[in-house]
Amino acid sequence: MSESKKKEREKNGGDCREEEREKLRREAEEKEDAKLEEYGQMTLNGSAGKRNIYLLSIIGEVEGHENLPGTSKATKYDHVLPKLAQLEDDSQVDGLLVLLNTSGGDVDAGLAIAEMIASLSMPTVSLVLGGSHSIGVPLAVSADYSFIVPTGTMMIHPVRMTGMVIGTERTYEYFEMIQERILNFVAGHARIAHDQLKRLMHSTEMLTRDLGTVLVGEEAVKQGLIDEVGGIREALGRLYDMVDGKKK
């Protein structure tokens, strides 16, 4: 084979390999875009290639065993739980950033996600944007370190039930048991005492037509629910430090 033909074949082979790499890159980007659009999840790996951070968004209402209307923004726990298990099993993921803007939702589903986040071996940071109400409170405190933006809100109130409720003593005992699960989890993962949290939950001073308390930004920090006021810069910076510290 002549030298010119060899060079031409090598050039064609190089072009094919370059086209294949470009095709794979586009497919990876399309998968990331689809994952972000469908689940509010993506991987952040732009920190000079030093850290691989997974981003999880918990928005709208936390959906439980029953599907919400198609017009409602929802976080599906049956999507989130397998993903968290996958992250724990993935040695390439260094940390988890949880963004929260939720009105609450199903208690069992929310606590299941919160317990999964709290049990991860990788560093985790949460950031409350807009609001993290009701079952969103355990979700916010489930991370190793938590932030809230200055205008972010957290609503603490008793457990609410919809539909027909049987008015017996055992029904109210069941409600109390559910509330204790929430109180114990939050008090165990934040700097607020169980009794203080319960007082905020049953307060009659703020909400004229309901029980509970709304805490805004710095107030959530002062009460011991959230660790610090900050935004995405502070949250990512803290997570980077935690990841780097673990690697060392």
Automatic annotation (TrEMBL):
Instruction: State the residue spans of region: Disordered.
Output: 1-35
Superkingdom to which the source organism belongs: Bacteria
Q: Which GO terms describe its molecular function?
A: peptidase activity
List the InterPro entries.
ClpP/crotonase-like_dom_sf, ClpP/TepA
Q: Which UniProt keywords apply?
A: Hydrolase, Protease
From its record, what is one biological process in GO terms? proteolysis
Q: What is this protein called?
A: ATP-dependent Clp protease proteolytic subunit
Organism expressing this protein natively? Candidatus Lachnoclostridium stercoripullorum
